[in-house]
Amino acid sequence: MTTTDWDAAAESFDDEPDHGLLDPVVRSAWARRMETWLPPARSEVLDLGCGTGSLSLLVAGQGHRVTAVDRSPRMAERARDKLAGTGAEVLVGDAGRPPVGNQRFDVILARHVVWLLPDPAAALRHWFSLLRPGGRLVLIEGVWGGTGLSAARLTALLGEHTERVHHEPLSGDARLWGKEVDDERYALVARAEPPRRHAEVVDVHLILRRGSEVLLARRAGTGYADGLLHAPSGHAEDGEDVREAMVRETAEEIGIVLDPDELRVALVMQHRGPGGNPRMGWFFEAHLDPARPPRNAEPDKCSELAWFPLDALPDDIVAYCRAGLDGYRAEERFLIHWHEDGDTVAYVPERPRRAVPLPVTAAPTGRVHHIELWVPDLAEAEAEWGWLLGELGHVPYQKWAHGRSWRRGDIYVVAEHSPDLTGGTHDRLRPGLNHLAFHVRDRATLDALAARAPGHGWQPLVPGSVPGAGSGHYAAYLVNSAGFEVELVAP
């Protein structure tokens, strides 16, 4: 608040360069700003705390219909003199509750007014009620020698009414003030649109597999992450579910028309780019059909398509995509990938990883807890089972005098040389355990495992991989030195 006698100040008010706008340079600087803050079409503008009407005169000169209000009769009188012949109306009244009745405006303009009001929040609430839908509130404020209203505080007050607030610093433009200034001066342009509920972009990403390889596209000409590799991807459009979006984006980007049943959900990730807004990403897996090879269907957005080993991905890749592919390899299902504002869009090997896997709930009843195998030779079992289970993604879990175990997730396999063991070998053809069966990601991985297995104590029961249980599956059958059989199954 201030104790200024505005009637007494009216005579000298225009002596300040930014009040009277008598200097052509100052007047031109304010005119250019007003052109950017006001609508280009003729609009109804309410100038609150108009003073001697200098800004109202600029606004009227740009073709707008002006209603000006000031609580000082002497200020209002001087404003009428300036605005004579422009069609503007000048009223005497309180800026916080202007005497305009039920009239609505396209723009409400207030310069160095809000900081003077006894209840700024109530005034802003009333001003928004005077705006037509989509209207603008143009507030020019500042902090002078510790007195005034900061942009952060005023923006917070506006947040009750709108999410669209444009902040424009003004301190650095000496032409506006007729001199250099070093305090905080700014404009806020707020749109009369109510706050919306939080919404996130949904994007979709294709992990197209060719055996152990994945297809990546190099971005070009998009204005975002150009030169970096990324999986074929895009945004879901209004009315699309995520599968429909993935099918459409795949056809648009790499020319393959997928059947929705070819897609498998690989991973869901909530992601925030550096300085950006959160989005929700769905990663889908599909396998290459040699009869439908991919092609670069968007050469204006992509400079090349190339296949890369999933376990040896290149570094020149979008960090978001790399996090998704790394999570996919680790068989994570849900991730949060939240960049710090100083992070880069590009993957940088030495930078901290931002991906955080989220544990998945599971009902424990009926699920396998562990499998225990009694073995005649613990060292032999450790070497053979340790190699195979390690290749299948299990990690060493427990170790004691008579046993070893390997864990994947919350299920583990035990090999134990128990003192109660009564036989020397396992006979898979007798009643009891016949074999264990494990998933393998794809046939190429399956064949590679089967080829290396004899070097680690696992001999094939039949050569190579053969059609196995279930349509479209292949299996390799291996037996180790103690007579235990394992079936490896791949799609």
Which properties best describe this structure?
491 residues; alpha/beta; nine-stranded mixed sheet; eight-stranded mixed sheet; 11 helices; 22% helix; 31% strand; elongated
Would you kindly provide a written description of the structure presented here, covering whatever features stand out?
With 491 residues, the protein is an alpha/beta fold. It is built from eleven helices and 26 strands. Strands 9, 10, 11, 12, 13, 14, 15, 16 and 17 form a nine-stranded mixed sheet that branches. Strands 1, 2, 3, 4, 5, 6, 7 and 8 form an eight-stranded mixed sheet that branches. The relative contact order is 0.07.
Quick rundown:
With 491 residues, the protein is α/β, with parallel strands linked by helices. It contains eleven helices and 26 strands. Strands 9, 10, 11, 12, 13, 14, 15, 16 and 17 form a nine-stranded mixed β-sheet that branches. Strands 1, 2, 3, 4, 5, 6, 7 and 8 form an eight-stranded mixed β-sheet that branches.
Largest sheet: 9 strands, mixed
Distance between the termini: 75 Å
Provide the low-confidence segments as ranges.
Answer: none
Structural class of the secondary elements?
Answer: alpha/beta
Strand content: 25-35%
Shape: elongated
Helix coverage percent: 10-25%
Mean pLDDT across the residues is 92
How many helical elements? 11
Radius of gyration, in Å, reads: 36 Å
How many strand segments? 26
